[in-house]
């Protein structure tokens, strides 16, 4: 088995390996070139290391041990199928740098209380649906005008987010944003980053004020998994062809089900179960993990 170990931060450059036979897979499934067909350097501070092994798990353990304490992100995976056909991403603290509900709570004067609940929910210590309803209730009577102000003043794409989405979609992949947050924000973030569709929860309003309620059903852990399965089935392939990325406990089901599940600046419970984690690089690391080079990146 040939397994690439892609590192989006400085590492040594391996020697070239012998060419591998051309892939017999369908041309619809885009594959990264074999190591010998190009330089192992993917971009500034990013390399491919080709390893021959009988199984992935021992290589992942060896790489993790070798890199312990170093500011390097690595992804060990099978060579074939590494370039994914679907990106499904969490929004808060993944594609954007904040938790929107915490920022709304700041405008309502209850950020300390809400953010504590958010942190515990993302660590998997609280039931997500119950925690969401409790936090939204604290936003009761907040003017809906604050939503746009919050978006304008607080919401920013994380570094590499737009490049990640645009590069994958330019190469034929689908890109979907799923969030336990709110459609007001996902619709705008999806447009800003280039996602093709988005799913999230709906804040209920009346008379220009938030009612403190959220629409049902709640989009949480299982709904994110359902979104992954539905979107891949609709496109005619399987979750193995997808890349899922997130940071909180409600992202775990989709991360575990995807062909490549990535924990981005994630809570410990997520980092422990993901195929790979990104703690140091920006979101373009997910492109390097798939074998894209910096020259392949689609940027503004």
Give the N-to-C terminal Cα separation.
38 Å
Structural class: alpha/beta
The helicity comes to: 25-40%
Give the strand order, joined by hyphens, for the main sheet.
7-6-5-10-11-12
Mean pLDDT: 90
Provide the low-confidence segments as ranges.
Answer: 9-36
Helix count equals 12
The percentage of residues in β strands lies in 15-25%
The top-level CATH class of the largest domain is Alpha Beta
Biggest sheet statistics: 6 strands, parallel
Series of H and E elements: EEEHEEHHHHHHEHEEEHEHEHEH
Number of domains: 2
Indicate the radius of gyration in whole angstroms.
Answer: 20 Å
Q: What is the CATH third-level topology name of the largest domain? A: Rossmann fold
What are the SSEs and their pairings?
Layout (H helix, E strand, L loop, with lengths): L1 E6 L33 E3 L2 E7 L3 H12 L7 E2 L9 E4 L1 H5 L4 H9 L2 H12 L5 H10 L7 H10 L6 H10 L3 E9 H11 L3 E5 L1 E4 L2 E6 L6 H15 L6 E5 L5 H6 L2 E5 L3 H4 L4 E3 L6 H5 L11
Parallel strand pairs: 5-6, 5-10, 6-7, 10-11, 11-12
Antiparallel strand pairs: 1-3, 1-4, 2-3, 8-9
Helix pairs in contact: 3-4, 3-6, 4-5
């Amino acid at each position: 088995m040939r397994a690439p170990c892609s590192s989006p931060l400085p590492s040594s450059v391996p020697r070239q390996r012998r060419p591998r036979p051309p892939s017999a897979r369908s041309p619809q499934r885009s594959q990264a070139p074999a190591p010998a067909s190009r330089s192992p350097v993917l971009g500034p501070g990013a390399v491919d290391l080709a390893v021959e092994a009988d199984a992935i798990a021992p290589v992942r353990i060896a790489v993790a041990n070798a890199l312990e304490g170093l500011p390097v992100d690595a992804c060990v995976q099978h060579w074939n199928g590494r370039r994914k056909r679907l990106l499904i991403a969490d929004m808060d603290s993944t594609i954007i740098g904040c938790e929107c509900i915490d920022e709304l709570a700041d405008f309502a004067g209850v950020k300390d209380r809400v953010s504590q609940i958010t942190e515990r929910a993302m660590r998997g210590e609280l039931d997500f649906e119950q925690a969401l309803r409790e936090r939204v209730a604290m936003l009761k009577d907040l003017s809906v005008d604050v939503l746009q102000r919050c978006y304008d003043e607080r919401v920013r794409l994380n570094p590499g987010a737009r490049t990640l989405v645009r590069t994958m979609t330019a190469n034929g992949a689908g890109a979907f944003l799923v969030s336990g947050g709110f459609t007001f924000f996902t619709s705008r973030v999806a447009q800003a980053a280039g996602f093709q569709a988005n799913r999230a929860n709906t804040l209920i309003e009346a008379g220009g004020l938030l009612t403190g309620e959220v629409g049902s059903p709640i989009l949480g852990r299982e709904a994110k998994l359902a979104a992954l399965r539905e979107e891949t089935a609709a496109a005619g392939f399987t979750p193995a062809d997808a890349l899922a990325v997130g940071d909180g406990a409600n992202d775990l089901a989709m991360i575990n089900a995807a062909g490549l599940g990535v924990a981005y600046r994630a809570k410990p419970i997520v980092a422990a179960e993901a195929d790979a984690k990104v703690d140091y690089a920006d979101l373009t690391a997910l492109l390097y993990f798939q074998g894209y080079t910096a020259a392949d990146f689609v940027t503004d």
